[in-house]
Structure formats: structure tokens, C-alpha cells
Design brief:
- By secondary structure, this protein is α+β, with helices and mostly antiparallel strands.
- It has a single domain, classed as Hotdog Thioesterase (Thiol Ester Dehydrase, Chain A), CATH 3.10.129.10.
- It is built from 4 helices and 10 strands.
- A hairpin with a 2-residue loop joins strand 3 and strand 4.
- The longest helix has 16 residues.
């Protein structure tokens, strides 16, 4: 299955945007007070790039799940479910207010393997953000497509490890809506309860992978006192809205657990 789409590897698209006061304010309104505050008042909080230069498909270019239809930038993989599996962020320089930004996106890898629930297809996309030709940030996004419905992970005891910093974050539907608006993400698993339950097999609507990553990245930057040069993260289990999130950093490692103690995302930082 995946081997039939290897000719899509190398495809790329470039989009442009601007770090507007409204975009910065939207990010802050959604995630404050869980944002790192750079000492440079003109520098933006880390994670803002997830709202910069997104794909803007028209209504006729959406798939059944509400996300951009496959066959446009991503290949027409015949597996209906898509998930954000993780990624990495390399920060070279901060984004600043009113900065013009170019995002160049390239599909760099596509692999197939069999999982417990059936065939899986892993897709890697790399983004490079530049201002006037100068590289600001490099990101890798790992996506996975599958056909089977989600299985419910077994919770572990809700005992938190020692942490340098702990945030308890409410994961309301309103937060998910705001983050979807900030990133222009119409994936139905983040707002359509019937779709999330009946079509995808989840217990509720899901907190976005990049929203969890943004919380981890900002907390690690707060602990370090600066944005880490490299940030790597993996999404391990679904984070269901309404169950809350416990974000904990110890040294150069961090995790998110839901209210039942299940680890849903983990990250490491390179200073």
C-alpha cells in the first residue's frame, strides 16, 4: 500500500504568512498562563509556528474527517484514520511581531507496516520557516494513517514522578475549539463527538497532538529559562477532552498525563 506512493516523496509546497498581533493574541488567549515569556518582549512564545502558514483548503477540498483531503499534498492513502504521532522542533531564532514568514513543506518519507489493529502508513513531513531567506525554525511532523478503530488504553495509577514544574491544565471543548481556530484545523476528532466515538472509536473528542506539544515545549522553556535548541516529542495515547492534563518537566524530559494517570505524550529537550 505505502510502497505505491513513494513517488510522492519529495513533493513540496511553500506558503507565506505574517506574525500579526491578532495571531499572537489568539495564541496567548488560548494557552495563557501556560506560555514561556521570552526576555525579549518582541519575541513570541514557542509553538506559535503551529498557527503560521497553515494549509487553507476550500470546503470542497476537505476529506470525510474534515481535514485536508488526501491526494492534494498528502498521497491518497486508502486508510481513513489519521493521527499526529509526534515530531521535532529545532529553533534557530525566535519569531517576532510583524515578521513576514515563509513556510516550505516537503514530504520526506512514507513507510508501511502492520500494527495490532491492521495496516499502518507512516508519513513524515518537514517544514522550514524563514524570514527574508534566513532560517528561523525547522520542524519534523510524523503522521500515521490506519484503518481500524481506536482501542482504549488501560490507565496506570495517577502517581506523578518528581518534577521541576507541574501544570494542571483543563482540557475543555472550548480550548480545543480555540486551538483548532488558531491552527485552521477542521479535523472532526477535535469537535465532533459523534464522529470521534462512532467513526474513530474514541471515548470522546481528542486534544490535538501539537497542542500537547506546545504545552510541553513552553514548560520546558520555562524550566530552562530559554527555548531549547531542539525539542522531540511522541504522542503515546489519546488525550480525551475534559479529563484534564498534568504537564510535568524534570530536567530535560517531560510528560503529559491525563486525569487517570495515562501518559499521553512525552518529550525531551536539547539545550
Amino acid at each position: 500500500m505505502g510502497e505505491g506512493f513513494t513517488d510522492w516523496i519529495g513533493r513540496s509546497v511553500t506558503r507565506n504568512d505574517c506574525v500579526t498581533p491578532r495571531l499572537v493574541a489568539e495564541y496567548g488567549a488560548a494557552l495563557a498562563p501556560f506560555l514561556h515569556r521570552p526576555t525579549d518582549e518582541n519575541a513570541c512564545a514557542p509553538g506559535l509556528h503551529w498557527g503560521l502558514a497553515p494549509a487553507l483548503p476550500g470546503m470542497a477540498e476537505l476529506g470525510p474527517d474534515g481535514a485536508e483531503a488526501k491526494g492534494l499534498f498528502l498521497p491518497p492513502i486508502p486508510l481513513p484514520q489519521r493521527m499526529w504521532a509526534g515530531g521535532s522542533v529545532e529553533t534557530i531564532a525566535p519569531f517576532r511581531l510583524d515578521m513576514a514568514v515563509e513556510r516550505h513543506s516537503t514530504l520526506t518519507d512514507l513507510r508501511q507496516r502492520d500494527g495490532k489493529s491492521g495496516p499502518l502508513c507512516f508519513v513524515t513531513v518537514r517544514h522550514e520557516f524563514r524570514n527574508a531567506g534566513v532560517l528561523l525554525l525547522r520542524e519534523r511532523q510524523d503522521l500515521v494513517f490506519r484503518g481500524g478503530k481506536s482501542s482504549t488504553p488501560i490507565p496506570v495509577p495517577a502517581k506523578l514522578p518528581p518534577a521541576d514544574l507541574l501544570w494542571r491544565v483543563g482540557t475543555s471543548a472550548a480550548l480545543l475549539f480555540r486551538f483548532s481556530a488558531f491552527t485552521f484545523n477542521a479535523h472532526r476528532i477535535h469537535y465532533d463527538l459523534d464522529f470521534a466515538r462512532n467513526e474513530e472509536g474514541y471515548e470522546g473528542i481528542l486534544v490535538h497532538g501539537p497542542l500537547q506539544a506546545a504545552l510541553l515545549l513552553n514548560q520546558m522553556a520555562t524550566v530552562l529559562g530559554r527555548v531549547p535548541a531542539r525539542f522531540d516529542y511522541r504522542c503515546l495515547a489519546p488525550l480525551i477532552a475534559g479529563r484534564g492534563a498534568m504537564v510535568a518537566t524534570k530536567g530535560l524530559a517531560a510528560t503529559i498525563r491525563d486525569g487517570q494517570g495515562l501518559v499521553t505524550c512525552e518529550a525531551t529537550a536539547t539545550p
